[in-house]
Amino acid sequence: MGTKYSITEYFGRNLAELLSERINPVYPEFDSSNFCAKVEKEIVNKTYTQRIILFAELLYQHLPQNYKHSTHILTSILGDENPNETGMFTNYYWVMPIGKFVEKYGLDEFDISIAAIEEITKRNTGEYAIRPYIRKYPDKTLNKMKEWALSGNYHLRRLASEGLRPKLPWSAKLDTFINNPEPVFEILEILKEDPVMFVKKSVANHLTDWLKVNYEPTAKLIRQWSLSGNKHTQWIIKRATRKIVVE
Q1: Cα distance between the two ends of the chain
Q2: Which parts of the chain have pLDDT scores under 50?
Q3: Which among 44, 111, 139, 237 is most buried, taking Cβ atoms within 10 Å?
């Protein structure tokens, strides 16, 4: 992706053709011409977010009605994992509708969907798709996110933090743990010395969110972390408190 067009313009017939080219080899019954025509007709005057939703809806209409089968098709086209901290919205922008598909249609299939989100986030991000699962299955999802926090894959470690942010940008507020942040803080504890900038930024922004929604326990946690001599923890604290002073 270059800078000539807004990101919205990448979610049009061009993306419909790209997805079709990837899907057809693994699911020859996919009606590419109808899919592309519907996208071209229905994207008119839609925003970036609305276009991603539309793509998910049209994929649902054109893929097998068996969720396990359709999800297997979509995860099989993901290709190589993103080797970098950057690129999720450039090289891997086309994965966004797949994440939305899992978010919208997979809520009754926890294991299949969580496995899909795990693969999606290694290329793009599962931070939006994971939120309905946190709300419906808080304990099961937290257990999985704790596993991700311990992963050797920094994309999964970042998701363990980013997906649980109470005020994630462009997403509805997650108030599941607002009055009891301890289960979330346990995950942040695992990540507080992470050396990868991608993860550190997420943890710092996550703490800033918590300072806004439940200050006292968050300030206590930051005061505890401030006793650490770890340079990564200190970086996280400095960024998290750059606009909100913790005394």
Answers
A1: 44
A2: 1-4
A3: 237
